[in-house]
Amino acid sequence: MSFHRILITGTNKPLINDFFKQGREFFELLTSSMRGDDLDAHLRLTQPEALICCLNIEKDTELHDLNSFVNVITKKNIPVIILGTKEGVNRYKGFITQSPTYAFDEKYIPPRTMFLQIVKIIEKGTEAPDESEKKHVLVVDDDPLILKVIKETLHDDYDVAVSVGGKTALKFLETKTTDLILLDYEMPELNGVQVLERLRMDPKTESIPVIFLTGNRDPQKVKEVLSFKPKGYILKPVNAEKLKETIKKILV
C-alpha cells in the first residue's frame, strides 16, 4: 500500500502527537519545526505532498513564527492544511494567500473523516475543492415526516442521510461515518441519551458532534437535555434558519 507523504509543523504539540498516533494508517508522516530555514530544508529534502500546520490560537507569539512560515511556503506549490480551533484556523488562514489552503477545526471533525478529506485534497493536487463536496449530516428520529422535512431543509448545503430510530443509526455508523448527528431526544427502544452514550463509548464515533432535537419546551426538560453536553439542541417544530445556523457554527 502506498502512503501519501505529509510534513507536519506547528507549536501545538498535543495536536501533532494525536495526528501522528491516529494518522499512521493513512499517511507517511514527517515533522519539522516552524523555523524558516528548518522548514525549507525539510520541504526540499522530503518532497511532501501536503503540509500540516498545528496551531495554538492562544499564543500570540506564533504570529512571528507564522510570518517565517508563510515566507517559506509561498515558494512552494503544495496544499497547506491548518489544524486548530475554529477561531485559530480562521485567524491564521488569512495569512496564507499564495498556496492552496484548507482549514479544519480539530474539535468538531472526527479524525477519520478529516484524514479522508486530506487524502482527497492531496489526490486533487493543487486544485481547489469541488464545491459539490458537502459535509455529511445524519438525522435520527422515529418520525419519518420530521426526517423528510429536515432532509429537504438541508440537502442544498449538506449530504444528508436519515435513520428511523437509534438502532438503525448505530447500524449505519458501523460501516459509515458522518460529520454531525441530529438526534431526537425522545425515541422508543433506544432514546437519544442511550444512543449518545453508545457513540461516546466507541472510539470511531466518540468525537462526532451531536445536536439533540426535542419537542419538549419545559425549561426543566431543556436543562436535562443540556446536562448530557451535546454540541447543541433544537426545539421542534424545527425552525429552518435556526437549524442551519446551529449546524454552521459547528461545522467549519
Automatic annotation (TrEMBL):
One of its GO terms (biological process) is phosphorelay signal transduction system. SMART domains: REC. It comes from the Bacteria. The keyword Phosphoprotein applies. InterPro entries: Bact_response_regulator (IPR050595), CheY-like_superfamily (IPR011006), Sig_transdc_resp-reg_receiver (IPR001789). Residues 136-251 form the Response regulatory domain. Pfam families: Response_reg. This is CheY-like chemotaxis protein. The modification 4-aspartylphosphate is found at residue 184. Keywords: Phosphoprotein. Gene3D superfamilies: 3.40.50.2300.
